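Chain A, query sequence.
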Amino acid sequence: MDSIFPVIWFEDRVRLIDQTRLPNEYTFVDVRLSSDMAEAIRTMIVRGAPAIGVAAAFGIVLGSREYTGDQGDKTAFLAHLETVAAELRQTRPTAVNLFWAIAKMLEAAKGHSGSIPKIQEDLLKTAQSIATEDVETCRAIGGHGLRVLPPTPEKLRILTHCNAGALATAGYGTALGVIRSAWGSDRLERVYADETRPRMQGAKLTTWECVQEGIPVTLIADTMAAHCMQQGLIDAVVVGADRIARNGDTANKIGTYSVALAAQAHGIPFYVAAPVSTIDFKLGSGVEIPIEERNPQEIYQVGFSRICPAGVDFYNPAFDVTPAHLITGIITEHGAFSPGELASGLGEMNLIQD
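Chain A, predicted structure.
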């Protein structure tokens, strides 16, 4: 199934796959207001760093159409867009693609010399191009990832954590894009998917994507990853990213750091797959990456059932940071780099984004 597009412009609105209802319900949410887009991002109807960026870009489009001021006052119009952007920025602090996409949209508006209606029209084109380019980027990541996966006499068994598939992007996926490319090239035997507590995106989303495409997938509890490595069931680990610092330190869904430690202990290559837009070159290391903390209900409640007694304290960080020394390679649309070569390699290509 090569047609999973979680964020699309549909007629006069944005249509989102409601990822909170998967895998049991494949339903859509139509978003017509920028404030509703902010809420959809905040409540994870749409999630995954690249997909959040695309959703935010369309949120700016919706916001631009909500302007009711003087159609000849560009200053007031741009001030309105800044207000919309501020609300969108407050939704998810860790995923840098959100801020990248918003900045790109505001730059397009500020640099436009046309009328407000023309700016509104061209903002939609800019958002659509961000979405289209993201799918192309993911396909390129998949190709570069295929080339760096370890050569083995047998087909590969790949472990992934959380969901970095089509649902987390504009389509195709980053980590799952590498896996899709391996499957399409007959180099993949099986995917091992961590369940990824507490929101269970691996169980709910990654396995769903694999089943749609007929990719063999085995779901494991997060606590089983090291055991599977010890038993010789894993040849490589491929994960996505929400923000990568200049030195290669990588923020990804909570639990990723544990998987990286286990992979190093067992001599298994650990790859991060992400677009260049996920790299925050302003941050020297992962210590500077802001880590989102979410509602503790995600921990103490499963469905409608509480799983611990009252009076317990909670800590619910949504992400952790994997140090660069645990990462074998960072796979981008422009090639794969060791963390130490990331800045210099992309710098030589004039791809560092300030």
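The longest strand covers residues 188-194. The two ends are 37 Å apart (CA to CA).
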